[in-house]
Design brief:
- The structure holds 2 protein chains of 2 kinds.
- By secondary structure, chain A is of the alpha+beta class.
- Chain A has 3 domains: about 140 residues, Beta-Lactamase; about 110 residues; about 140 residues, Histidine kinase-like ATPase, C-terminal domain (Heat Shock Protein 90, 2-Layer Sandwich).
- In chain A, the strands form 3 sheets. A 5-stranded mixed beta sheet of chain A has the order 6-8-9-11-10, with helices on one face. A 4-stranded antiparallel beta sheet of chain A has the order 1-4-3-2. A two-stranded antiparallel sheet of chain A has the order 5-7.
- The longest helix of chain A has about 50 residues.
- In chain B, helix 2 runs parallel beside helix 3, helix 6 crosses helix 8 and helix 7 crosses helix 8.
- Chain B folds into 2 domains: about 120 residues, Rossmann fold; about 100 residues, Winged helix-like DNA-binding domain superfamily/Winged helix DNA-binding domain (Arc Repressor Mutant, subunit A, Orthogonal Bundle), CATH 1.10.10.10.
- Chain B is α/β, with parallel strands linked by helices.
- In chain B, the strands form 4 sheets. Chain B has a 5-stranded parallel beta sheet, with helices on both faces.
- Chain B is globular.
- In chain B, about 40% of the residues lie in helices and about 25% in strands.
- In chain B, strand 9 and strand 10 form a beta hairpin.
- The chains are: A alpha+beta, B alpha/beta.
- The interface between A and B is large, with 49 and 44 residues.
Chain lengths: ~425, ~230
């Protein structure tokens, strides 16, 4: 739900609450005001009647539907200040009762005692309630319409810089060096947000560059001593009359150096893919690369005694860096050759949607999805580095391709969906 | 063959010099941009082995200078950076080959010989070793004037052996030469053995002595001594 929709709903709920309280208060005020006015009118009527009696108008002429004056024996009464009360009386035309306000007073005028009752129509409870509700509902509706309209306008104009900021964050690429200047905005919060994000982006780009330099330097620093050590051993193995023991020592040292060199190369490659450091995306003919890779592996497949069948759709282009594509296909094939069995087979299928490499082989000793982890090797005693599939996985991730490893009755199947 | 090796890492320089100096190969060394420049202006070389990272300037400047003063000299770049950009830039500037550290010295040797052959004879000369004659421009191999059919890998293997004649080649070195980065060498030793077995069989069946000497536990040596 959008922020503005949320706040509007919350605001409307709050105003509903305030309007209800306001309605109750308004109802109370209206009632007490009406009562005061009615009482005032009743007292006026009483004053008029008293004046009329004083001037000698007979009380019969004063009696109406709403006024009733009786003369009472003087001895029975004393003067009162008068009392107000609510009562019900018949409606003059309709066959129903309606509320009246009554003023009762006993007064001695010119030596004669009178008992007087004055009545006045009083505002009905239902009526006043209806009026208040009607007013409040209309006000509430008006407020709602104004709010919703305002929300649209606000989201269009006030939140424009915010949406622009979001767009820039989404387009941010840590490998690029160019800056992303944010548009100026007069809203202080957005200005602060933009400054903060700008700083974070620059920091990320700086860190990224530092990391990239570090891994490149580290690779350089490792490869040079490795080259020296390897060379020394090669010169040593040129010497005449080496004993079998010495030869074995040289050989072991050589293979450890090779392993170290391969590992550091693969790790550097992984970091590079991770940072998307390789050339920008371009369309690569993966069919050509697949054919070329197959050619490279041809003799290995034959020497290993495997059968290879292929089904390659020509001229499939996907958005990937060519050298990464080569590594992807190469690693998949390498994996299929290495973890195969005697008289086994390899099948490679390439279409515009997917690349599938299938091979026979022993069942995996760990769950297949764990084989994408670094340094995770399957077959026991295998001297593989355990980085091949991790590299494949990384390449797929960077290019938003889906990678799946399925093992089913003796067949390993790796599926890459572009 | 006269070489200039430009490399700032002293030990690596010694390695290359020690390994390559043999027979008619003469090596001179330079460990900085300044001394490389002086030598290139003063003397002529067949091939320059060039490290891209030098303490007082980058290797590309040496390359540009070289192409100015001695355009006929071959260049082989050695670099610790396996960066495609550097490789492309180097080859565009006129380098003949590019080798990533850590490399095998026999690999360096074979590549230098290939550059030398290409530069000197445009690859049209014949390579002879005992009864074996290799025609590099057509990839044909003859034993006692009889052509023997070799697969691509067997041909590459034979050429590698001849370029490194009299030197020890480990299975690792051979595997890396034949399959490059594409194959983890650690389990391709059996494949090397297979190829060598086939090559040996084809050559000896055609009537040549078996020049491939097995050094138990270490590798192979292509030599006519002891045959």
């Amino acid at each position: 739900m959008r922020l503005l929709t949320k706040t509007t709903i919350l605001y409307l709920l709050l105003s509903l609450f305030v309007f209800s309280i306001g309605g109750i208060v308004a109802l109370k005020f209206i009632r007490s005001e009406v009562e005061k006015e009615t009482d005032y009118a009743l007292r006026d009527n009483y004053r008029d009647a008293r004046r009329a009696i004083k001037s000698g108008v007979p009380i019969k002429a004063l009696n109406t539907r709403k006024v009733r004056i009786d003369s009472v024996p003087l001895s029975e009464v004393s003067d009162t200040t008068g009392t107000f009360s609510d009562t019900l009386g018949p409606h003059p035309f309709l066959d129903e009762m309606e509320p009246y306000r009554k003023f009762t007073i006993t007064k001695v005028i010119k030596g004669k005692a009178y008992r007087m009752e004055f009545q006045e129509n009083f505002l009905e409870q239902d009526d006043s309630y209806e009026v208040v509700v009607k007013i409040m509902t209309r006000l509430f509706l008006l407020l709602g319409i104004v709010l919703v309209t305002a929300m649209f306008l606000i989201s269009r104009y006030m939140f424009k810089p915010f949406h622009e900021t979001l767009r820039r964050i989404r387009a941010f690429n840590v490998t690029r060096t160019e800056r992303y200047p944010f548009p100026k905005t007069s809203t202080r919060e957005f200005r602060h947000l933009n400054e903060f994000i700008d700083q974070m982006m620059q920091q990320a780009q700086r860190d990224y560059r530092a990391l990239k330099e570090l891994s490149e330097n580290a690779s350089h620093e490792i490869q040079t001593p490795l080259a020296i050590a390897r060379g020394k051993l090669e010169i040593l193995s040129e010497s005449e009359s080496l004993s079998a023991r010495q030869i074995d020592l040289i050989q072991t040292a050589q293979s450890s150096l090779a392993r170290l060199s391969k590992t550091s190369e693969a790790l550097l490659l992984l970091t590079r893919i991770e940072n998307q450091a390789l050339a920008p995306r371009q369309k690569t003919n993966i069919s050509e690369i697949a054919e070329r890779s197959l050619h490279t592996f041809e003799d290995l497949v034959a020497l290993r005694g495997l059968t290879m069948t292929t089904d390659i759709e020509p001229d499939v282009h996907i958005a990937i860096d060519p050298s990464l594509c080569e590594i992807l296909v190469g690693n998949l094939l390498k994996n299929a050759v290495r973890h195969n069995q005697d008289n086994g087979w390899i099948k490679l299928h390439l279409s515009s949607q997917q690349l599938i490499v299938e091979n026979t082989g022993a069942p995996p000793s760990v769950p297949t999805d764990q084989l994408f982890n670094r340094f995770q090797t399957n077959s026991n005693g295998s001297r593989s580095l355990g980085l091949g599939l991790a590299i494949v996985k990384k390449i797929c991730d960077v290019h938003n391709a889906d990678l799946q490893y399925v093992y089913e009755s003796g067949v390993h199947r790796l599926i890459v969906r572009f | 063959m006269k070489l200039l090796i430009v490399e700032d890492e002293h030990e690596l320089l010694t390695n290359i010099e020690t390994y390559l100096t043999r027979g008619d190969v003469v090596c001179e060394t330079a460990s900085s941009f300044a001394s490389a420049r002086d030598k290139l202006i003063g003397f002529s070389y067949d091939i320059v082995v060039l490290d891209l990272m030098l303490p007082d300037g980058d290797g590309f400047s040496v390359l540009r200078l070289l192409k100015d003063v001695q355009p006929e000299t071959g260049v082989l770049i050695i670099s610790a950076k396996n960066a495609l950009d550097d490789k492309i830039k180097g080859l565009e500037l006129g380098a003949d080959d590019y080798l990533t550290k850590p490399f095998h010295l026999p690999e360096l040797n074979a590549r230098l010989k290939a550059i030398y052959r290409r530069r000197k004879f445009q690859g049209r000369d014949l390579i002879e070793f005992g009864e074996i004659i290799i025609q590099p421009d057509t990839h044909d191999v003859f034993v006692k004037d009889e052509e023997i059919p070799l697969t691509v890998k067997e041909y590459e293997l034979l050429l590698f052996f001849v370029a490194n004649k009299g030197r020890v080649l480990t299975k690792q070195t051979i595997a890396e030469h034949l399959w490059g980065d594409n194959v983890d060498l650690l389990d391709s030793f059996d494949f090397v053995y297979q190829h060598i077995k086939n090559l040996r069989k084809k050559i000896t069946e055609a009537g040549s002595p078996d020049y491939i000497q097995t050094i138990y536990g270490l590798g192979y040596k292509f030599t006519d001594r002891g045959v």
